[in-house]
Amino acid sequence: METQETLEIAFEEQTCAWALEIQDGDEVRRVEIGTKPVIVGSSRAADVVMHDPTVSGKHCEVVVADGGVAVRDLGSTNGTYVGGARVNEAWGTEGTTITIGQSTIVCVAHGADDHEELGDPLPGIAGGSTAMRRVAAQVRRLAKASAPVLVVGETGVGKELIARALHTEAPRAEGPFVVLNVASLPRELVESELFGHERGAFTGAVARRVGAFVEAEDGTLFLDEIGELPLDAQPKLLRALDGYEVRRVGGAGSGRRLNARVVTATNVVLPDAVEKGTFRRDLFHRLEVFVIEVPPLRARPGDIAPIARALLANLEGELGHRELTPNAIAQLTSHPWPGNVRELRGVLQRAGHDSPGRWIDAAVIERALRRAKKPAPLHLSTEKARELLARLGNNISAAARVAGVPRTTFRKLLGEP
Fold first, then answer.
1. Does the predicted model carry a pTM greater than 0.85?
2. Which of the listed residues 2, 73, 331, 334 has the most CB atoms within 10 Å of its CB?
3. How far is CA 125 from CA 305, 310, 375, 381, in A?
């Protein structure tokens, strides 16, 4: 029979199953909390000492309460923000993001995966959330292999950065890293771009070309937007991945074996494409030997502030030196970012141009977000759609982007099934 003391201990263990995921400048920490208040601040007297100079000596306190986490501001200079709003007291749960100064704190509930391997953040990739450290561990593990890796995730999450990390962490790091965006290629040139062509192989082939696979010899070939690969080119890519000889377009005789580690990326759900018949099942299974899923920004709000600072540093040549106020960081972390890092960069670019001085505040961020709304799609007749397609070299992906509609919708405008 359980005693009162046993029940109290069990309750204490249950209520203490929370942690704070803290991103303080370049430092990432995870601090466990319980029912005893934890003071966060820049003073040595704080329980959690922050290095961020914009954080007050005793900035706020957090404590486990009512099945979640309660936060209370302690009269800080720059305020405590939860969900984009400045608060005196607030209550949060899993994923709630607290902004203090230039730093972010995410409330994390302990789970069964708390003891899994978490890698140090990858060089050149800002953000040290648990989600991205999980990806970092996976990248370092898979970098040692030679089998294909499929990187999946929403548009704008940084799939190419993950592909580059797979290359730089690999034994092939001294070799070339070659990028080929499949969706940007005219349909009739896909095979040539991949495998090369002989002079005179087709109209316009005025010189011999070795192709992306040969350019990536002893290195890594990154095929972005692989879900857009035309069906007629898919068997030849499969043949190359299976280690068979591949010939250049217009070539005669035997071909050559290609020695490049292939990393692919897509925001297309390939199993759905397989079921629809637009992507070969055997190629899908060859590409998905290893899969890395890059989480969207909304799933890792603690990464938004460090990513924003990195983007502003990259834009310094255009904008000059710019920094974000605490309320601007709070505004950024509360936005869902459907366009992910690419959308964040555009908002910061607009906000930087709108800010006359060094600091970008929440009001400027809010204006930049309002202007980020997607433009209305063009209303095209079949004739106009065909004219647009011809003007863009018969590149359906490019034409659909200009028209502001999905590829499937644009195909219907053309009268295709």
1. no
2. 331
3. 13, 9, 30, 44
Query: Could you give the CA distance from residue 201 to residue 156 in angstroms, rounded to a whole number?
Result: 37
CB-based contacts of 197, cutoff 8 Å, min separation 6: 205, 208, 209, 211, 248, 249, 250, 251
Q: Determine contact, residues 84/96, Cβ cutoff 8 Å.
A: no
Please state, in angstroms and as integers, the Cα–Cα distance from residue 170 to each residue in 120, 146, 161, 173, following that order.
Answer: 16, 9, 14, 5
User: Rounded to an integer, what distance in angstroms lies between the CA atom of residue 195 and that of residue 179?
Assistant: 14
> So what's the pLDDT on residue 371?
78
Total count of residues recorded for the chain: 417
**Per-residue model confidence (pLDDT) at position 200:** 46
Q: CA 213 to CA 215: how far, in whole Å?
A: 5
Check residue 259 and report its DSSP letter.
-
* Whole-number Å distance between alpha carbons of 96 and 326: 17
Mind listing the pLDDT tens digit for each residue in 144-170? 998 999 999 999 999 999 999 999 999
Q: Say whether 373 sits in a helix, a strand or coil.
A: coil
- What's the pLDDT at 256? 63
Q: What angle do CA 55, 60, 65 make, to 5 degrees?
A: 150
Q: What are the helix (H) ranges across 277-315?
A: 281-287, 304-314
Angle between helices 304-314 and 326-333 (to 10 degrees): 110
Question: What is the spatial distance between Cα 167 and Cα 179, in angstroms, rounded to a whole number?
Answer: 12
Q: Name the region of 191 (left: φ>0; alpha: ψ -120 to 50; beta: rest).
A: alpha
**What mean pLDDT do residues 97-104 have?**
94
User: Cα 251 to the chain's mean position, in Å?
Assistant: 40
Say if residues 120 and 136 touch (Cβ distance below 8 Å): yes
In order of 192, 250, 260, the CA distances from 255 in angstroms are 14, 11, 15
3-state SS class at 155: coil
195/160: higher pLDDT:
160
d(CA 193, CA 197): 8
Helices 362-370/340-354 angle, 10° precision: 120
